[in-house]
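One-letter codes give the sequence; each number marks local geometry. A record appears below:


***
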Amino acid sequence: MEPTNELVPQSPHQAPRRRVSRRLVAGLAALAIGGALSLSVAYARGGDGPEGGFMAFRMHKILDRVGASDAQKAQIKSIWEGLRPQLKTLHEQHAGLHAQITGAMTAATIDASAIEKLRQQSVAVMDKVSSVVTQGFVESARVLTPEQRKQAAAEIAKARENRRAHFEEHGPGGMGEF
């Protein structure tokens, strides 16, 4: 019989340990990506800046492009300032769940059911974030005229296409290939 290049486990425990290790690495990678996305969502939805972060900057640019009046801009700013405390609380809850998931993934013993429950809680919190953000968009849209809403939609679509093209060219995080 000729030797093969197959790995033959030295003990019955070697292969499962290797699988757990791969799963752990994959899980930690997913958490890191999820954490980065959560951080970007947090900055986008309210950020740490005095004027609401990157999302507010983008929204201001769009409002300028659609010719929103100062009164419309003030009204929309007021809408988002009113939602900011609720969004901050939800983002804090999500960050806490993310920390718990990280702790569970790095524990000596992996409890898949506990991690799954935390994941479900995390998804529920992000669903609430989505609902509040949608509420803000609906209230903001009501401030604009139908023509301004159409122009804003076109600006958002253009920005989305630019981000998609950038992502395709530079990969995740805009840093090129890994």
